[in-house]
Amino acid sequence: MHNPHEPLNRAARRSAMYLRCRPYDPQEAEYVRSAMEHLAHRLALPFPDVYADHGLSTRGPLPALASLLTAAERGWVDVVLVPGPFVFSLDDRAAAETVERLARAGCEVVEAPGRVVRPAAAPGDTLVPVRRRLTAAAVPPPSPTPGGAAVAYGAV
Fold it and tell me: Considering the entire predicted model, what is its pTM?
């Protein structure tokens, strides 16, 4: 798990982002993409490749996610930036399985700090991510994975 007080592994240089906005909202999608690019810059990562399944339900195929998983398993991606695990699935267990699969492929999954959503604003206003602190009571403890394998996932 990534410790937000330590820099990312400097050997991890190939980055990607995975985005899924449903229902599809072009302004929201652009805002989140921009926030992920800013996070990559802040973490001194190269400009990330974009994998997006906007408008698609997790009940059906997610071709961009499948492509990202393939790229990760081939060693082409070291760090995956996401606004939150919900982009993989709204089902927490399924989202955790995707994070674990990326971790097994050697990827570090990094969640954006706070809520990365476009706040309601007048046209032309500057948009800033909303920061929200979670208390220990609000976050369920991580469930152990079969075999005790660690999951490389962290919020910065």
Answer: 0.67
